[in-house]
């Protein structure tokens, strides 16, 4: 833990309550595998077309191993970090892998609630819910929701936000 | 005002001039292309263009009509394809007036109505001065009578009362006939023009123009190297010539920037009027812009490194629902004046005066390191590579050391500007590397928080705290705050918003 040893231990943010769906882990694994494959092909092409030097072989092997390692590691890291929570008062998400972001938006300031289902997401039965506020910097996307969870979240959110009037600026 | 109205008839004099101006450039280009071979085209085209611009210029008067109903402003235009623009009165955010020199001679004014929903402004070009003033007052006061967004339920009953040819004063918080005496927030002084040369934004534009000019002139005088006189002058004192050119450019820039400053901001008045902040200015073209005070969420005070040397500053208001993200309340002005205006707009002097809480040694180390790395990465290849080949290995090394020192100075500066504070009503953020920027945002204008951490920040328990808002740049960023402090700050700034998520 970081060295913040203030006498009355200051409150930090806790993590959002819910983990994203295991389907999202599968999706990340798939996309990372595809990316790794593309990189591997590129490395192969370099091996074939670039004139051989003594250091080229070892370099390509190292890059290939690194590529495979990242493809295995990144999905798990992302899965550990991505979390979300919707309470009656606010939406709270945590995203990222190397750099992380924790976003909070009170529901009283929410303007629209949208769902998104990309082709890959549909394959894994996933959906994403985007919550926008009057600030373009304040939009929050909850990714990696199972479709039934997404439907429930949207219903919940629209019910809460419909009760609020005003333009939420 | 409930019946249909037309533009002022004198617009038939303004319109053709405007249309002619639009024709002029393409016509000239076409004529230079065609006319040099066939001179008679010139004779045929000239009257054609004049007649066409008169016709086009006159048409708007016949086709444009507008009407203010109880609920909306309706404008119809168009000869062939009719267009009907409507703006609900309670959505009207701004009514701006503008008059070019020609408008002013003819006692006309262009009216632009902004709804803040999208970028389209409803434009009426042009009304008579009194007609424009009436329309402006009517639109803004109607907006006031229909309830503000906090209490939308009251809209229906209130706006139906003001049906008569004049809105009845009873419905408005301020009676129509007796506007609140407008007190100026600032007194313009022509001596402020001394700050104009220190505005780098416009200098960049001017330099670009100058560069293009030099390129042009160098192409013309290719054979200059053969010129005996030039050769002698250049070889004798190249430095002196360069110095002379630089001095002339400096004088030109100073004069030019000051003149444009004075033309644009002459007779600047900034005053409150019926819950609006109104700005009027201009020597030749006069402009009047209005911003509803209820939409102002804060201000941003900015002193660039250059302006700081002469005690100048800039001030912008952070406004929601405005086409431009920020609203320049003043031009470059004395720092004391911008501070006074900021205090007047915020209604509180604390956010302007309060000392910022520094972010501590970890933030300082990050600022230093980040600036050194940025300086090395951006500048070292550019500086070192060409010289390396010519002079040897020690050049890049010396350059790297110099850049590191430069980066350290920048980092030190950035850290000095970095900080935050929380006052009764405002969140205050300090930022900027060479410029010193202080942003004060109403705490009620904060509509969310983002805590972001990159791996370097996580190692030092720092976070970048972003308060999201609907106004200005839509976010206020406070960099490298110790994490616990960031959470505490956000929690105190918006009580309750984080309560569920702290542990």
Concise synopsis of the structure shown:
Chain A is α+β, with helices and mostly antiparallel strands and 169 residues long. In chain A, 45% of the residues lie in helices and 25% in strands. Chain A is built from four helices and seven strands, in the order E-H-H-E-E-E-E-H-E-E-H.
State the separation between the terminal residues of chain A, measured CA to CA.
38 Å
- Total DSSP E strands of chain B: 21
Shape descriptor of chain B: globular
Measured as a percent range, the helix fraction of chain A is 40-55%
State the low-pLDDT regions of chain B, or none.
Answer: 145-180
Tell the overall outline of chain A. Answer: elongated
What is the H-and-E element order of chain A? Answer: EHHEEEEHEEH
Give the total of beta strands of chain A: 7
Largest sheet of chain A: 4 strands, antiparallel
Q: Compute the number of helices of chain A.
A: 4
User: Structural class of the helix and strand makeup of chain A?
Assistant: alpha+beta
Biggest chain contact: A-B, 38 and 44 residues
Q: What is the makeup of the main sheet of chain B? A: 7 strands, antiparallel
Distance between the termini of chain B: 60 Å
Give the spatial strand order of the biggest sheet of chain B.
Answer: 7-6-5-11-10-9-8
Q: In percent, how much strand structure appears in the residues of chain A?
A: 15-25%
Task: Give the low-confidence spans of chain A.
Answer: 1-8
